[in-house]
Design brief:
Number of helices of chain B: 3
CATH class of chain A: Mainly Alpha
Number of domains of chain B: 1
Low-confidence stretches of chain A: none
Mean pLDDT of chain B: 89
Shape of chain B: extended
Oligomer: heterodimer
Number of strands of chain A: 2
Distance between the termini of chain A: 48 Å
Number of domains of chain A: 1
CATH topology of chain A: Arp2/3 complex 21 kDa subunit ARPC3
Radius of gyration of chain A: 17 Å
Strand content of chain B: under 5%
Distance between the termini of chain B: 15 Å
Number of strands of chain B: 0
Radius of gyration of chain B: 19 Å
Helix content of chain A: over 70%
Structural class of chain A: mainly alpha
Largest interface: A-B, 74 and 68 residues
Strand order of the largest sheet of chain A: 1-2
Structural class of chain B: mainly alpha
Chain lengths: 222, 101
């Protein structure tokens, strides 16, 4: 019996050009720097264990590739899950730590391209996903009522949004024409996003049943 | 002074949550799909997989603990990763957070 191996899954160096990689590092450092400041101003120390736990779970879940279609797999990103529990800024820091440990310790994702990987997997879906989540939850009558459907839609969109960002960087790097990269990336990630939505909803539903009080830590974590 | 019950109540869920993360690692070692993921699939289909460069160094490459093979190598690597991200984020959180009344 052959057991499946966990492949290195994130973009390796060479997938984007050096100028694009540098530009993405600059953007990522700016956003993460802002997230550090916001977290420093607002993070309640009671929320610290939840930050660690969310990072641990997201790291573990990212190892669990699920089959999608036609010999393709996908895995959780977790940005919306992190942001719903911790808020956009602490959520961004958790996602940054996960992607950084993956690259530094596990050679999962290159070092030059790490700024782009953090941006695409840890910032686009975490910040954009959080604001989308709050907007949809608001339309549904608030987070108490709208948490799961809003998180499902935001989780799906976070994966598609990240794939659009990656495709734009591939195109701008002239590694592959954008006209090829964009439809291919969005097509497969529209399916992977369904898995993201299911896992995000399952995790939030589980927390809602077992420890609903943890939802209140977010505004402490801001 | 913190009572024994308080401590159990406050820390118990953290241990429980980390146990769930560990369980996910163990399940992943046996059940995760070995098929290429979305980006890798696109890179193969569209034809830029060759642009990827190997890492110039290897610590625990491909989630296989060095010198081991099989699911145990992946489980050990994954548990180490869970511990590493938990520790990094906990310490960063401690450094950034403020005590509230």
């Amino acid at each position: 019996m052959t057991l499946p191996s966990i492949h290195a899954l994130h973009a390796p160096d060479g997938f984007v050009s050096v100028p694009i990689a540098i530009a993405m590092w600059v953007a990522t450092i700016a956003v993460v720097g802002f997230a550090v400041r916001r977290t420093n101003q607002h993070l309640d120390d009671r929320a610290v264990p939840l930050l660690g736990v969310m990072a641990a779970f997201i790291f573990a879940a990212q190892m669990f590739n699920f089959p999608v279609i036609g010999g393709t797999s996908g895995h959780l990103l977790g940005g919306v899950l992190a942001a719903v529990m911790l808020g956009p800024w602490a959520g961004t820091l958790v996602m940054t730590a996960v992607v950084a440990v993956q690259a530094l310790l596990f050679q999962d994702g290159g070092l030059v391209i790490m700024g782009a990987n953090i941006f695409n997997m840890g910032i686009v879906g975490t910040l954009g996903g959080y604001w989308l989540y709050r907007a949809i939850a608001g339309l549904l009558g608030g987070e108490e009522r709208g948490r799961l459907p809003a998180a499902a839609i935001a989780a799906w969109a976070s994966v598609v949004g990240g794939s659009v960002a990656m495709a734009l960087q591939l195109g701008a790097s002239e590694v592959v024409p954008l006209g090829l990269a964009l439809p291919a990336m969005v097509g497969v990630h529209a399916l992977i996003g369904i898995g993201e939505a299911l896992i995000t909803v399952a995790a939030l539903a589980f927390i809602g049943v077992t420890r609903a009080d943890l939802f209140r830590l977010r505004d402490a974590a801001a | 002074m913190t009572t024994r019950t308080d401590r159990g109540g406050r820390r118990g869920w953290v241990v429980g949550a980390l146990a769930i993360a560990a369980l996910v690692v163990v399940l992943a070692a046996y059940l995760a799909s070995g098929d290429p993921d979305g980006l890798e699939r696109v890179a193969e289909d569209v034809g830029f997989i060759g642009a990827g460069q190997d890492s110039p160094f290897a610590i625990i490459a491909d989630y296989v603990f060095p010198g081991m093979d099989g699911p145990m190598a992946t489980i050990l690597a994954g548990l180490l990763g869970v511990a590493a991200v938990f520790a990094v984020v906990w310490l960063a959180g401690k450094a950034l957070s403020r005590r509230r009344a």
